[in-house]
């Protein structure tokens, strides 16, 4: 999964913007700084469980119980990966938050658990990307996405999947 790499968190300088993706890099840095300033949390689930355990514990399993349905039954014991997004009350995230996960065709693929929480009056668009460019007959990827939308909040959710040509 890719959130925002640590090495991208340094401030942009005019010289660092001179590459092919310099302007988009500058926008990413401004977007990240704006999110942090507004109290928005975007991280992987392992970090969220360590650093934001109160939020994770309060919402995880509230919209999709940990023992509900086949996907949840598989992702709960084999849980690895996923992302966590928390948008505080009244915060409007203007640009979409995009997270991408890639699988490498291992026999036991990622069993992700993603949790998105938009507190009262918050607005966010979350784009989840997933790519599995290699097909093997014994690979499996499944995940659960929980979206918690408090009163007056709005969440737009988009998923983009790129899989091997034979799937």
Layout of helices and strands:
Blueprint: H1 22-37, E1 41-44, H2 45-51, H3 53-59, H4 69-75, E2 83-87, E3 97-102, E4 111-118, E5 123-132, E6 142-149, E7 154-163
Parallel strand pairs: 2-4, 3-5, 4-6, 5-7
Antiparallel strand pairs: 1-2
Structural class: alpha/beta
Shape: globular
Rg computed from alpha carbons, rounded to a whole number of angstroms: 17 Å
**Spans where pLDDT lies below 50 across 5 or more residues:** 1-26
Q: Kindly report how far apart the N and C termini lie.
A: 22 Å
Q: Could you report the average pLDDT, rounded to the nearest whole number?
A: 74
Number of helices: 4
Portion of residues in beta strands equals: 25-35%
How is the main sheet built? 4 strands, mixed
Number of strands: 7
Order of SSEs: HEHHHEEEEEE
State the share of residues found in helices, binned by percent. 10-25%
Biggest sheet, spatial arrangement of strands: 1-2-4-6
3D architecture notes:
This protein is of the alpha/beta class and 167 residues long. The protein contains 4 helices and 7 strands; from the N terminus they run H-E-H-H-H-E-E-E-E-E-E. It has helices spanning 22-37, 45-51, 53-59, 69-75, and strands spanning 41-44, 83-87, 97-102, 111-118, 123-132, 142-149, 154-163. The strands form 2 sheets. Strands 1-2-4-6 form a 4-stranded mixed sheet. The chain has a 3-stranded parallel sheet with strand order 3-5-7, with no helix packed on it. Helix 2 crosses helix 3 (53-59). The longest helix has 16 residues, at 22-37. The chain is globular, with a radius of gyration of 17 Å. It starts with 21 loop residues before the first helix and ends with a strand. The model is unreliable at 1-26 (pLDDT under 50).
């Amino acid at each position: 999964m890719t959130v925002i790499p640590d090495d991208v968190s340094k401030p942009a300088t005019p010289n660092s913007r001179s590459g092919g993706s310099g302007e988009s890099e500058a926008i990413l840095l401004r977007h990240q700084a704006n999110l942090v300033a507004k109290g928005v949390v975007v991280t992987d689930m392992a970090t969220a469980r360590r650093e934001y355990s109160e939020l994770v514990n309060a919402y995880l399993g509230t919209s999709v119980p940990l023992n509900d349905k086949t996907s949840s039954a598989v992702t709960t014991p084999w849980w690895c990966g996923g992302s966590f997004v928390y948008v505080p009350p009244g915060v409007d995230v203007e640009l979409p938050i995009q997270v991408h996960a890639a699988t490498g065709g291992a026999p036991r693929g990622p069993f992700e658990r993603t949790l998105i929480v938009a507190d009262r009056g918050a607005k966010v668009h979350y784009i989840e990307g997933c790519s599995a460019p290699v097909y093997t007959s014994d690979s499996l990827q499944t995940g659960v996405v929980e979206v918690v939308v408090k009163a007056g909040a709005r969440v737009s959710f988009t998923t983009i999947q790129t899989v091997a040509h034979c799937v």
